[in-house]
């Protein structure tokens, strides 16, 4: 389908959350990561809205969803924002897809509101504390924070981007760039919290939440791709290797969508088998 979005705004805890939706059928909520903006999901919304109601949003303090006084990131508050968007559309539950730190917020949402999750797909959620080399990566993250404080945003972002594999592969289309204030908010208010924050995956497994994880083929052995594998081990859930890089759902959408639908089919079959 072509893109024909309807824009909405829902007020939650001091923030006007701007969201965009299209389609009919079961709800899929697409959760942005550190870049904060919902526009990255517009291509996949267009591809799926013939069979699903699809919604995405600008996260709190990002793009259109600004606040008067910026505050430090709260993953539980991010989960409540997701709930507010879903309820604004009149749904009681949703399939949730979170990419990068959006995957962390998807896990938090499932932890806090398990009854609202149909299926959860986490695409390269960077839960670094699960990795065998977590100590090394933590020290690298702390180094990046020091670089940001002493040398500025451009240098910190440049060093961070060196590990974002696949973006510079030959022939790969660019992705939508976030508004200039988004990276500043990420480094000021989000990166320090995300350094070691890990939702309670064991509780999600106990709750029997329907979860699948994805890692992107172009990311090779990047820390966020390897983290997906570790999540699958803990959650005992399907792990798909999917086309593209860390935002392959945006710029290699045609190749990505069959894997997305395949994951939903796998999760639905697993649910039926476990219920029988």
CATH superfamily, please?
Alpha/Beta hydrolase fold, catalytic domain
Ranges with pLDDT <50 over ≥5 residues? none
Straight-line N-to-C gap: 36 Å
CATH class: Alpha Beta
Q: Give the SSE string.
A: EEEHEHEHEHHHHEHEHH
What is the number of E strands?
8
Structural write-up:
Helices cover 43% and strands 17% of the residues. It is of the alpha/beta class. The chain has one domain: Alpha/Beta hydrolase fold, catalytic domain (Rossmann fold), CATH 3.40.50.1820. An eight-stranded mixed beta sheet has the order 1-2-4-3-5-6-7-8, with helices on both faces. The longest helix has 23 residues, at 253-275. The model has no long low-confidence stretch (mean pLDDT 97). Keywords: Hydrolase. Pfam families: Abhydrolase_1 (PF00561). It comes from Cercophora newfieldiana. This is Alpha/Beta hydrolase protein.
Please give a quick description of this structure.
The chain is an alpha/beta fold and 276 residues long. The protein has helices spanning 42-48, 75-88, 101-112, 134-151, 153-161, 181-194, 201-206, 223-235, 248-251, 253-275, and strands spanning 6-12, 15-22, 27-31, 53-57, 94-99, 117-123, 211-216, 239-242. Helix 3 links the parallel strand 5 and strand 6 (117-123).
